[in-house]
Amino acid sequence: MKIPVSWKLYRFDEIADIVNGQVDPKETKYQGVYQISSENIESGTGKIVEKITVGEKQIISGNYLFDENMIVYSKIRPNLNKVCAPNFKGLCSADIYPILPKTKIVSKKFLFQIMLSEFFLKQAIEASMRTGIPKINRDDLGMINIIVPIDIRMQDHITDILMAFDSVIEKTEQLTQLKEKYKKGLMQSFFEKSNIKGCIKVLMSDVLSLVKREHDGKDILPILSVTTEKIMLQSDYFNKRIANKNTSGYLIVKKDEIAMSGLNFWMGSIHKQNLVDAGIISPAYKVFSINENKADKEYFSYFIKTDKMKRILISSSVQGASIVRRNFDLESFMSYHIKLHNLQEQKEIGVLLSTMDKEIELIKQRVMLLKLQKKGLMQQLLTGKIRAKADEEKKNAK
To answer: Which residues contact 66 (CB under 8 A, 6 or more apart)?
Structure first.
């Protein structure tokens, strides 16, 4: 490893202490403090997802005590990169290490950024693989190599740059949340209110027609999965290639048609298919076409995502073989009455909501881009590469 000028190489245990000694969370003095476990830490970002007290969680097994000077690091599955820097005192589960930086060498906020970096993550993963279990022990964590600017002021300068990125990312994510909240409010006003003026009462069968278009297995069409969130390519959903699969008898679903799971649909597995011109799905699903004389396709794609639609689906089902399964009753579903706006209003509502979705998607893409930019900047700043290049240029100039 090339050590930049004015930087120094350390082992992790030379710049931080891994705190020992568990406490009994059942003691009264700990009931009101926050407890952090692995599920409370967002992977790769350092965010604390939810702050819940020891008493609320009803913690009974031994925990470690941490304070605002420490970093909290999950030793289980280090590939998830779960690390946070709380600004409060609390307890953390036994699967987490409280880390106390030696502040004469490294600041808390600089070490925190180091522990979030790819440079640290790669070594942590390699160390966990040596143990044969998805966990990094104290000794292996202590042996991880870290390079640190000797000057604390330089550490603070680097950290301030990275924290500025974090601030922009957080504000952009908040904007996304605000827009999603506003869109949800609009949808409730459009679809959930029972006294909407000008609405027309129609049968579900007036709007939807069941389509049973079986695939003969000859033409190659993309296999789709209807998840709770959206329709996806099955290869993406299962994160692998689907090779030599017999798709004879699968159902063809064309663009703008509705695909719905016949089982467990109350979870929201119903969507308008916009991914491809034509794809195939399991025969366990149902496919419907939309009658454009009764419903605007864009408008109806939002209607099917409402709580009202979920209630319709639940009431149009019967208990299955297990308690977690309900079977779809097509006849009951198609005979259900629904209220829709007139066609002109439907088109306007569809355009408005789809425009909002595009805006939200653009903001989400900006968040992803900012995170990638920060990741690249971390690689440069936290390994001293940017500074090293500047020093080299000065040396060559002389």
So the answer is: 19, 36, 72, 86, 89, 90, 91, 92, 98
Q: Do 237 and 180 belong together in one domain?
A: no
Closest by CA position to 216, among listed 184, 252, 190, 182: 252
CATH number at residue 137: 3.90.220.20
Residue 228 carries which DSSP code? S
Residue type present at position 161: I
Entry pTM: 0.78
Q: What b/e readout covers 99-127, taking b as 16+ CB neighbours within 10 angstroms?
A: bbbeeebbbbbbbbbbbbbebbbebbeeb
Residues 135 and 269 occupy one common structural domain: no
Tokens at 228, concatenated: 């709770």
Contact yes or no for 289/224 (Cβ under 8 A): no
Encoding tokens for residue 215?
Answer: 């695939």
Which residues sit opposite 76 in a β-bridge? 135
Residues 221 and 293 in one domain: yes
Q: How many domains does the chain have?
A: 3
Digit-coded pLDDT (tens) for 55-83: 999 999 999 999 999 999 999 999 999 99
Task: Point out the domain boundary residue: 150, 180, 213.
Answer: 150
The residue segments making up the domain with residue 77 are 7-150
Please give the single-letter amino acid code of residue 227.
T
Question: 106, 65 in Cβ contact below 8 A?
Answer: no
Q: What's the one-letter identity of residue 25?
A: P
